[in-house]
Amino acid sequence: MQTRLQAGQGYGSMFNCVLTVYRNENVAGFFKGMSFPLASIAVYSSVVFGVFSNTQRLIGQHRYGDSNHAPALSDLAVASMVAGIVSVGIGGPVDLVKIRLQMQTQPFIEANINLKHRAVGFVEQIAYRGPVHCVSTILRQEGLAGVYRGAGAIILRDVPGYCLYFIPYTFLCGWITPEGCLSPSPYSVWMAGGIAGAISWGTATPMDVVKSRLQADGVYLNKYKGIVDCIAQSYQSEGFKVFFRGITVNVVRGFPMSAAMFLGYELSLKAIRGNQAETNP
């Protein structure tokens, strides 16, 4: 729904989007393009959380002489920005494939693509048969640069987005955890992670819209010349409200997704540290 609302045409609201997708594509339409993200989410999350943690430790070692020193706000900001930049390497191609597969059944309007003698409606020809065919087609037609289409918008989304992801989590987790506890409880981690995810995805929505439109561009046509052109065309045709399309979906999905990620991350760290303590008493 997020992709259809942000980059698609003809969806007035989230409810209307749900009805339209179900009416035209049945239940399978809600899971279109999800195989590639599901196959890569573990690697992506490991890289992002690993880069954030290791950057934080390096900063602590360099600034305080102790890798486990409590990080300052500036330390968290730097570590978050590094994680946001690195995330583009994996997240860019994954997002591109997901959006291309989801948008190839999107109805298009003749006036929007300047094509004559073409009926309005769903595109009859399927451009991509699956994730592998999608990647190979993009490489063949657009080269390696095509796989990273919208990378600039992803950086502009993820660098501040991860700052508003890890920083609120760190402070909320410390605030919720009772004094005297050496580590946060699973509930504290879950709640802090969920709130941080909702904040991050909610504030990242404007640039997420731009990113989705740039990546969807190219399935059947090339409409935008870049980030600035995408912003200008979107604003001229749909007004300022276009940059908040899908914000409800982003916030609603951001809470449980981020809560589960942070909880899994913290529990995994505890398990690893426990095993290391038993191995090296």
Describe this structure in words.
By secondary structure, the protein is an all-alpha fold. It has one domain: Mitochondrial carrier fold (Alpha/alpha barrel), CATH 1.50.40.10. It contains 11 helices and no strands. The radius of gyration is 21 Å and the shape is globular. The N and C termini lie far apart (51 Å). About 6% of the residues have low confidence. It is a multi-pass membrane protein. Belongs to the mitochondrial carrier (TC 2.A.29) family.
Describe the SSE topology.
Layout: H1 2-7, H2 14-25, H3 35-64, H4 73-103, H5 110-113, H6 131-142, H7 144-147, H8 151-176, H9 186-216, H10 227-238, H11 247-279
Helix pairs in contact: 3-4, 4-8, 8-9, 9-10, 9-11
Membrane topology: Multi-pass membrane protein
Solcar repeats: 1-58, 71-175, 184-271
Keywords: Membrane, Mitochondrion, Repeat, Transmembrane, Transmembrane helix, Transport
Low-confidence stretches: 107-124
Structural class comes to mainly alpha
* CA radius of gyration: 21 Å
The CATH homologous superfamily is named: Mitochondrial carrier domain
Shape category: globular
Number of domains: 1
CATH architecture grouping: Alpha/alpha barrel
Percent of residues in helices: over 70%
Instruction: Report the span from N to C terminus.
Output: 51 Å
Q: Quick one: how many beta strands?
A: 0
Instruction: Please trace the helix and strand order, writing H or E for each element.
Output: HHHHHHHHHHH
Average pLDDT metric = 82
